[in-house]
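Hi team, as promised in this morning's meeting, here are the two structures we talked about. I've kept the exact order from the run log so nobody has to guess. The first one is mostly here for context; it's the second one we should focus on when we meet again. Sequence first, then the predicted structure tokens.
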Amino acid sequence: MPQYEDKQKFSVGSFLLYMLGFLLFWEWLRPLSTFTDTDYLSIFVLFSAFLFTLSYFELSVWVAFPIKVLALLYALHSIYFPVSFFDFQWMSYLINDLFGSMKHAFARDWDSMSSISRTFLFLILLWLISYLMHYWLIQARRIFLFFIITVLYVTVVDTFTVYDASSAIVRTVIIGFVLLGILRFIRIIELKGFKVNENQFPMMWIVPLAALIAFSSFLGYLAPKAAPQWPDPVPFITAVGNQSDEGDGPGNGGGIQKIGYGTNDSRLGGPFVYDDSPVFMTTIEELHYWRVESKEVYTGQGWKTETAEPQSESVNPDDVSLDSIHAVTYNDNVRSEELTAEVEVLRNNSYPFVIFPGELQSIETEEDRIYQMNTITNKLMTFDQAEESGLGEYTVNYKVPQFSETLLSNSSTDYPAEITERYLQLPEDLPEEIQSLTEEIVADEDDPYGKAKAIERYFSRNGFSYNTTDVAVPGSNDDYVAQFLFESKLGYCDNFSSSMAVMLRTIGIPTRWVKGFTRGDYEQTLQDGRRMYQITNSNAHSWVEVYFEGVGWVPFEPTQGFLDLPNFVSDYEDNTSETDVPEEQDEQNEQARNTEDSSGSTGYQFPIDLDKVLTWLKWGSLSLLILLVISGMFAYLTRKNWLDKYFLWRFRKRKDDEHVFDDAYHRLLWLLEQYGIKKRPHQTLREYALEVDRYLDTGDMRILTKKYEHTRYSNHARQVDWEDTKELWENLIKRIRP
């Protein structure tokens, strides 16, 4: 017998479609962390899963849209802003950054767009894909093209990157075949008019389909495989691209390396694989780079340290700067703030040195060690008796500088002899075009600081891209920096930092190449306000320190996508003490670092007070949310008093189109169920109509049902005139009582 539902609604089937569609889309996200510099993959996956879940419930656009916007903002907040989500000050920086990036986008200056704006666009893309998946799965009932593209994507990624898709291709094929089978089954039902009870779906189709696919996959796994008929082109391409006289391994530029701290930097170049193995945990008050060592000799292929003289001296951990002048990074006239950080090493003491931010002052630990400071690299080694031995846990006290741009701009170029002899070194065969390019970049600058900033900005505005997979390896007669500047323009931190250091040396500004780690990944906030971060091998990094007479060594960050620059102020305030950085200024600097793009600009600045606007929006939104919740609860509790009146008003405005009668009839069935007149599972529409007429003391339900069945199942079906049936429908609605 016919049922009252025209369209087949399978709650279990729809859930399976969404779940399988999400799993198929997940295969696009899985490789990203392997062959790109995309972090926070888990946030992208959770955001996509949330969007798919909202699509499954098919909420009204007025409800779903603001929820998705909040989810997008929360995702951005989780990645870039380690403050409370309800501390709406971060929103002002986000809006400034997005508007600033819009200016770059309209000018087609894509390289200058900040990482926040790029992430925002990526989240929008995920949003659009979730909508497309809903359309393909629920409306079009077609997924074959997306399935084929996914298979091609996985195979290409497996072939030409370090991502291992052995399991991914199996998952993709199984998920795709199950999806195709379910969609085919649903299309047959809808086209042929078959009826399947909800409790019969998906058992009658999915279980045999899944069993067949599982059995075929099992046979394929056990079956013998033929050897590859064609040679793999990737090793040949890699070998041709990486020809060198040196062996493989970190610093040798041979083959694909794993990212992480290493001591051999004599041969830079070539791709690397991300490694998220933890190195250490830290509890800090502010975010900083973590310094290990610096190197001063550029060879044309990489960096090394001169070893012709004794390089180490004993250091007292209670006052490092007292025993070693080489530990002093900044001059006394640089204002700084004293901070403390706790470090817990997670590599079984395999790092026999101290990792620290800023200018190290002292070390506190319960472990007995001997400390030796390298006078060239500033690397602080730790020994147990005569053997190298790392610390498991320790606390470092350090200074964080605040650099005056006025002081930097007015610094002298009359450098000490020990600085010029060591930190202006360049190979004799350095290509002349490097100096020519540098002089062209700094032509409009008169002081060392302006020249350094000009070169730092150069990489974000001239087609350079951060890349870890397509990085060229210089040949035996090629210069590492020249190849990056004039040929590939693709590379990672070593390429950017080495280039800036060498370029500044060509115009007589001392530099050194620094290695260490970035701030790491946020873990949690403690009760005292300090934050815990985990630093992994993937946080290994290099940057540049530039020497300014009267200031000291100042760090610069030329690498795109890395934003942890030091505090720069236009000039020192007279009422500020020498050793204290104002707390408000410190918070502003941290927020600015979180929102700066690669050119150092914070983007578009609004002519209004965004903080006041956002505070008003904060409390206004909270009040509106509370009002909506209360109104929603009241409306739900009193729904039987107004639902009938609402639908009478709604359908009186409907025109006599081909769907209005069907919609009105289905809505009548829904209302009857809401008011307690429920249709039993195996009851036909005619039987149910008789029951409704007896309950409401009318005969209108049988007439409407007969017309509905005639339009649905008659061989000469035609649409019912809504004007002829509207009065009957309204009479039934009016008779329904709570």
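And here is the second protein, the one for discussion:
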Amino acid sequence: MSDATKNIQLQVIWSRLISAVEEQARSLIRAGFSTSTREAGDVSAGVFNRQGDMIAQAVTGTPGHINSMARSVRHFLDEYPIETMQEGDAFITNDPWKATGHLTDLSVVTPIFRNGRAVALFACTTHVVDIGGNGPSPESRDVYGEGLFIPIMKIVDRGEMNEHLLKIVRANVKEPIQVEGDIFALVACNDIGGARLQKIMDEYRLPDLETVGAEILARSKQAMMDAIAKLPRGTWRNHMRIDGYEAPIDLHAAVTVDESGVHIDLEGTSPASRYGINCPMCYTEAYAAFGVKCLVAPGLPNNAATLGCITVTAPEDCIANASFPRPVVARSTIGMFLPDLVFGCFEQAIGNVVPAESTGTLWNIRLGAQANGKDRGFMVTTFHSGGAGARPHLDGLSATPFPSGIRNVPVEVTEAITSLVIWKKEFRQDSGGAGQHRGGLGQTMVIGNREDAPLTFYARYERVENAPKGRNGGRPGATGRLSLGSGSATVRAKGIQTIPEGDTIIIEMPGGGGHGDPNLRDPEAVASDVALGYVSPEAARAQYGVAVDGSGTLDRDETARLRAG
């Protein structure tokens, strides 16, 4: 076979592998029971070689899932060497330090056998609706209060589900049908991925994945190093302050580019918190590396080889490298800000290609109702977001998460499976930071209960005190705000609280930062924003120097005077 033919065949096999992991992920979403799986798509899926190196991933969910899962399979192999695995086995864990950062994520790894020998591994992760304990609240003082901790163990033994483990899970969660259903979906999707791999190997007469996998990883590494070689050499530093729980948190990063790769050092970052906003190193690595890849090589495969060109270090037991048994349920509070932190370093190195800061961590709505004599109660997480930061040549995306890739959950779904009613869900006017390119808008939601009963509200929000910053002269986005419809009490940004019977919770999400001088924004674009309700006439005048009435009619003469003055 000629080299050209080999290259073509390798590309075809690569495309088929991507199709296999995409089908793996799609089947997980289709079969999932909880809204986080089937509606938000908060999942990851991938195929690994015998050594535990991720070869290919599905385009799903969040970098926090996929990039931490990319490192987690080696932990499974440390516990169960591949030579000891048997056909029909599958393994599970939610260990925050060996999987994807908190107990609410379940990860399953399945070996794929061919002619009696394990030739590959498929892995997947999903965020389950509940895992017991204090639920999604960050108020626990250690990981033991955050729910059921499942060490790396078998969930399937030679084709037989581990009913003992399933019984323990059912006894510890408010939503046993949803959680158990998601576990079965995790196991099934790996089997589907494995079946597709078998077809690929049959078609191309591959005895294993070793040669093909090694070639894919080698080419990926070379392409990543070629991209890094185009960057200037040096070290650049950035600092970000976020709200925190008991005190504000300072995140520091120094990004160094040299001939060996990109190296991120988080020295100076705040120490660990007493509350569950701490971030294990696996999740820190996942999001910090994602920030690099977004700017340096967004089109390259995301696998063990490209991720291996990026190193991340952090002081022991700082908030971005929390040690066991720190509480970590809200680890996204830290992790999802790391791409923006890294972007601030690269802005100094590569100029005007970096977007403004975004809302960062998701503004998910976590609500529950306590069980009574006739009803077990419910726990629901509905995924939503504020605005993304403006880009150097485009406005920011509104009500769109970055760096997470999670979909918003339709309000109709939430209302169908709970007693909740969403009275309002709309873009939040004037929340996007002003700039030549406007920051994405946040959104406002008003939620109540159809039943005559109070609700438990699990708050874990950021950007309430510290707004997303603009870049290159752009203004910050609006901070978030929480309140009761009755105005009868203050609603905190973090912690378990009660929404009284008959009352509503009003959630106003932050907007993304703006990019560039607001005076350079096209007045017609400002007028269009006003007409659509994105920007008020008052903000158009004050922030952009544009005179426009509520219908979007532009006064060009007055605008010229405002901008000249």
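Starting points for discussion:
The longest strand covers residues 117-127.
The chain has a mean pLDDT of 95.
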